[in-house]
């Protein structure tokens, strides 16, 4: 992950080819030099030699591999057969593999499986664990039969070894018991397999987590637990939400959408308008509306600061028109009287169904904190894939036209590229007119699940998990969005950190 994955894709391909080459070389050399040539006869308990009745399927799976006639190479038979065939032989064949062969096969296969598991190819771990465990169990059975002289069936030990190895690796218990009972078609093995898996799980938990849990932590996947701890109910949605919102207006210029999509990695954006009805009261310090400031004041980017960040990103675009947009805006310095006129126009402007608010109408840096953090009325959520699709298909209208002239896309057209939606970096920006406007209201989700800022974490967690959500907006009593909750905000580590901050604050 540190040395291969950050590099180009062909480096991952070279790593896969290297693993394949080394695996082939090791298997071939080990089978040729360390494998034993064994015949199809096996000694019985009375020291007489009898011919083992070998079925047709066994004859078709054994590998001679440089051995004389009527003999076969036991290590090549394990290595050069499919994994399910090798497992079948370890489970059902008696006296056909030497302890030395089983030991070498177990060690080599274990090391190769560990190495292959990290390669950038869709390789599994379930069957290789079964094969390694079956070989180890078969080895224990051979040692007991040869050295101690116990008359046992080696296939049963191979089954128990496979269960122990796989159970200790993936920490599965009940489901793995059912799988092994179904595969063996022997219900009598249920109790010993279950005991074996429980002991394997307890032993593995004594040292570390399961292999899948370890990889979840390594890759930073925000996996949610089944439920939250009781102590977490001391937190509310306002404590864990992300107040630093990147939002879009119902009618937004193409230049702003492109800037947002290229400078963020979010998968959904709130669609908002400024709360016109409460704005004048907000300026006077209305308590209800100014609660919005309490949730956002500490770390929310101001609209002016966000506009500066978007403008800076526009300067690197290939389109000269896009590059010059922000320069033109910064070159025109509006007098203080004009700024007051713009403010008055923003307060009095009304558009149906949503006001046409553009990024170039952001407030001045000289505005006070309360003026910058106006209440934002929440109207819905729109996905990144939807915005990119609208830009690629040219769904927009001119500044001097009505939004009714904007082309309309059907649901089939919006989901045509599922699940591999195009990326914003694949878009030819030179073909875009930055002054065109996109009406996102026909494509947004106007009624997503929302929670109140005072909702307990357990309720937020249950809603998020049971409904399979990816984004959960936090909306106050007057319909203003104050934050958003994602899967990351509900992970156990994040909740613990917020709980510690809560105790420090108290």
From TrEMBL:
<keyword id="KW-0597">Phosphoprotein</keyword>
<keyword id="KW-0677">Repeat</keyword>
<feature type="domain" description="CBS">
    <location>
        <begin position="444"/>
        <end position="504"/>
    </location>
</feature>
<dbReference type="InterPro" id="IPR001807">
    <property type="entry name" value="ClC"/>
</dbReference>
<comment type="function">
    <text>Voltage-gated channel mediating the exchange of chloride ions against protons. Functions as antiporter and contributes to the acidification of the late endosome lumen. The CLC channel family contains both chloride channels and proton-coupled anion transporters that exchange chloride or another anion for protons. The presence of conserved gating glutamate residues is typical for family members that function as antiporters.</text>
</comment>
<keyword id="KW-0813">Transport</keyword>
<feature type="transmembrane region" description="Helical">
    <location>
        <begin position="16"/>
        <end position="34"/>
    </location>
</feature>
<dbReference type="GO" id="GO:0005254">
    <property type="term" value="F:chloride channel activity"/>
</dbReference>
<keyword id="KW-0050">Antiport</keyword>
<feature type="transmembrane region" description="Helical">
    <location>
        <begin position="156"/>
        <end position="181"/>
    </location>
</feature>
<keyword id="KW-0129">CBS domain</keyword>
<keyword id="KW-0812">Transmembrane</keyword>
<keyword id="KW-0868">Chloride</keyword>
<keyword id="KW-0472">Membrane</keyword>
<dbReference type="InterPro" id="IPR000644">
    <property type="entry name" value="CBS_dom"/>
</dbReference>
<keyword id="KW-0406">Ion transport</keyword>
<dbReference type="Pfam" id="PF00571">
    <property type="entry name" value="CBS"/>
</dbReference>
<dbReference type="Pfam" id="PF00654">
    <property type="entry name" value="Voltage_CLC"/>
</dbReference>
<keyword id="KW-0067">ATP-binding</keyword>
<keyword id="KW-0547">Nucleotide-binding</keyword>
<dbReference type="GO" id="GO:0005765">
    <property type="term" value="C:lysosomal membrane"/>
</dbReference>
<dbReference type="GO" id="GO:0015297">
    <property type="term" value="F:antiporter activity"/>
</dbReference>
<keyword id="KW-0325">Glycoprotein</keyword>
<feature type="transmembrane region" description="Helical">
    <location>
        <begin position="100"/>
        <end position="119"/>
    </location>
</feature>
<keyword id="KW-0967">Endosome</keyword>
<dbReference type="GO" id="GO:0031902">
    <property type="term" value="C:late endosome membrane"/>
</dbReference>
<comment type="similarity">
    <text>Belongs to the chloride channel (TC 2.A.49) family. ClC-6/CLCN6 subfamily.</text>
</comment>
<dbReference type="InterPro" id="IPR014743">
    <property type="entry name" value="Cl-channel_core"/>
</dbReference>
<dbReference type="InterPro" id="IPR051280">
    <property type="entry name" value="Cl-channel/antiporter"/>
</dbReference>
<dbReference type="InterPro" id="IPR046342">
    <property type="entry name" value="CBS_dom_sf"/>
</dbReference>
<keyword id="KW-1133">Transmembrane helix</keyword>
<dbReference type="GO" id="GO:0005524">
    <property type="term" value="F:ATP binding"/>
</dbReference>
<protein>
    <recommendedName>
        <fullName>Chloride channel protein</fullName>
    </recommendedName>
</protein>
């Amino acid at each position: 992950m540190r040395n291969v994955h950050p590099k180009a894709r062909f480096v991952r391909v070279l790593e896969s080819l290297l693993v394949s080459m080394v695996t082939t070389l090791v298997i071939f050399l080990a089978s040729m030099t360390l494998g034993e040539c064994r015949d199809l006869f096996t000694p019985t308990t009375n020291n007489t030699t009898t011919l083992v009745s070998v079925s047709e399927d066994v004859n078709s799976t054994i590998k001679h591999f440089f051995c004389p006639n009527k003999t076969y190479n036991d290590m090549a038979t394990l290595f050069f057969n499919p994994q399910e065939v090798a497992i079948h032989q370890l489970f059902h064949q008696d006296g056909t593999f030497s302890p030395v062969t089983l030991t070498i096969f177990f060690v080599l296969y274990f090391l190769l499986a560990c190495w292959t598991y990290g390669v950038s190819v869709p390789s599994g771990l379930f069957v290789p664990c079964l094969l390694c465990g079956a070989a180890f169990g078969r080895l224990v059975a051979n040692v007991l039969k040869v050295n101690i002289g116990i008359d046992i069936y080696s296939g049963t030990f191979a089954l128990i070894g496979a269960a122990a190895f796989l159970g200790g690796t993936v920490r599965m218990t009940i489901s793995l018991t059912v799988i092994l009972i179904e595969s063996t078609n022997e219900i009598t093995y249920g109790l010993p397999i279950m005991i074996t898996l429980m002991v394997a799980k307890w032993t593995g938990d004594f040292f570390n987590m399961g292999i899948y849990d370890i990889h979840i932590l390594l890759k930073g996947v925000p996996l949610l637990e089944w439920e939250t701890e009781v102590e977490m109910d001391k937190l509310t949605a306002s404590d864990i939400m992300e107040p630093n919102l990147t939002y879009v207006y119902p009618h937004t210029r193409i230049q702003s959408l492109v800037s947002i999509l290229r400078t963020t990695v979010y998968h959904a954006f709130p669609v908002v308008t400024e709360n016109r009805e409460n704005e004048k009261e907000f300026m006077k310090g209305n308590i209800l509306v100014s609660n919005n400031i309490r949730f956002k004041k500490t770390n929310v980017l101001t609209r002016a600061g966000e506009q500066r960040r978007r403008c800076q990103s526009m300067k690197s675009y290939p389109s000269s028109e896009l590059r010059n947009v922000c320069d033109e805006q910064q070159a025109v310095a509006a007098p203080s009287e004009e700024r007051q006129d713009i403010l008055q126009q923003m307060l009095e402007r009304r558009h149906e169904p949503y006001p046409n608010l553009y990024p170039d109408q952001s407030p001045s840096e000289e505005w006070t904190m309360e003026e910058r953090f106006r209440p934002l009325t929440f109207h819905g959520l729109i996905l990144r894939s939807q915005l990119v699709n609208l830009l690629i298909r040219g769904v927009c209208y001119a500044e001097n036209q009505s939004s009714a002239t904007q082309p309309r896309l059907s649901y089939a057209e919006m989901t045509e590229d599922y699940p591999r939606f195009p990326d914003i970096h694949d878009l030819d920006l030179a073909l875009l007119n930055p002054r065109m406007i996109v009406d996102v209201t026909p494509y947004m989700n106007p009624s997503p699940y929302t929670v109140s800022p005072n909702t307990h974490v357990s309720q937020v967690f249950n809603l998020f998990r049971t409904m399979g959500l990816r984004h959960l907006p936090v909306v106050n009593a007057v319909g203003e969005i104050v934050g958003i909750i994602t899967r990351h905000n509900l992970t156990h580590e994040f909740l613990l950190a917020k709980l510690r901050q809560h105790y420090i604050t108290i």
